[in-house]
Amino acid sequence: MSGTRRVAVVTDSTAYLPEGIAEKYDVRVIPLQVVIGGRVGAEGLDVHPADVAEALRSRRAPVSTSRPSPEQFARAYADLAAAGYEAAVSVHLSAALSGTVDAARMAAAHAPLPVQVLDSRSTAMGLGFAVLAAAEAADSGADAGTVAGEAAAAAARTDTLFYVDTLEHLRRGGRIGRAAAMLGSALAVKPILHVDAGEIAPLEKVRTASRGLTRLQELVVDRAGDSLVDVAVHHLAAPARADVLVERIRSAVPRLRHLYVAEVGAAIGAHVGPGLLAVVVSRAADPQG
To answer: What are the φ/ψ torsions at residue 275 (nearest 5 degrees)?
Structure first.
């Protein structure tokens, strides 16, 4: 902990932060649990994207996920207090997609330091950009209220768009939300979805995977507009698709600041399936406030 930093930042493993960020800012990452055929493991530690992609493709073993326990959060908060932090801001994936926020709140109620728990109403780098904003504010010496405010503001400036080859994995996992309206035509189309008010919602339908990739590019350009933006590209077992999209975004977005690329982890991968291609657009704060 730096001498000026008093507030710790906590998140969960679905933030898929850029490499080195958690270590740089001492962000505590609490893993979700992934279950493959009865074998339980921590996301990113015991279970990896390739494990989930193979299980979903082969259909030999059912795949499910579960939230971290309140006890996991309680231990993390106690460790932060022991390390000398005066407060913590705990930023997590949407409550509409997971009970992780509830577990964090249960632990926060009895933590040995004040903890503000924030529902990002998103996931992947839709959550990650909020965590990054919180970490940067905390590193500058901001108080807990300011750190939480920066996280909430960053989340509100973020759009999460994604393409999946099929809605079946979302349906099986119970995470399909308003996108259920597309199920009747799922065999004839490829869905483009987005995260809206914390839920997975339908956006458009396309006929082919190549058109889905092109449409994601167009949507990124539209969401970015004239703003200075950071963009994250996610995939599951589809690196070639991701590479094509990355190059297109580099060429098409005029005020691109940072571009991150990461395969989604097992917890999100379990619900979207191989072939996922996702883009998160984070607009920079308006300097005029």
So the answer is: 100, -10
Distance, in Å, from the CA atom of 276 to the CA atom of 256, rounded to the nearest integer, reads: 23
Q: Which string of DSSP letters, residue by residue, matches 140-152?
A: TT--HHHHHHHHH
Share of the chain above pLDDT 70, in %: 90
- Bridge-partner residues for 206, per DSSP? 190
CB atoms within 10 A of CB 44: 18
Beta strand 277-283 pairing with 158-163: antiparallel
User: Tell me: the pLDDT tens digits for 123-153?
Assistant: 999 999 999 999 999 999 999 999 999 999 9
Neighbour order of strands in the sheet with 190-196: 199-206, 190-196, 158-163, 277-283, 229-235, 256-263
Could you give the CA distance from residue 200 to residue 160 in angstroms, rounded to a whole number?
10
Question: If you write DSSP's letter for every residue of 85-102 in order, what string do you get?
Answer: -SEEEEEES-TTT-SHHH
Tell me the domains of the chain and their CATH numbers.
7-32+67-155 (3.40.50.10170), 158-283 (3.30.1180.10)
CA neighbor of 94 nearest in space, from 84, 104, 85, 86: 104
Residue corresponding to tokens 């995470």: 175
- CA distance linking residue 202 with residue 183, whole number of Å: 10
User: Which element (helix H / strand E) includes 7?
Assistant: strand 7-12
Question: Quick one: which of 92, 90, 128 has its CA closest to 260?
Answer: 128
Question: Are the CB atoms for 264 and 271 separated by under 8 Å?
Answer: no
Which position has the token pair 């339980």? Answer: 40
Which pLDDT belongs to residue 241?
93
Selected residue with higher pLDDT from 186 and 152: 152
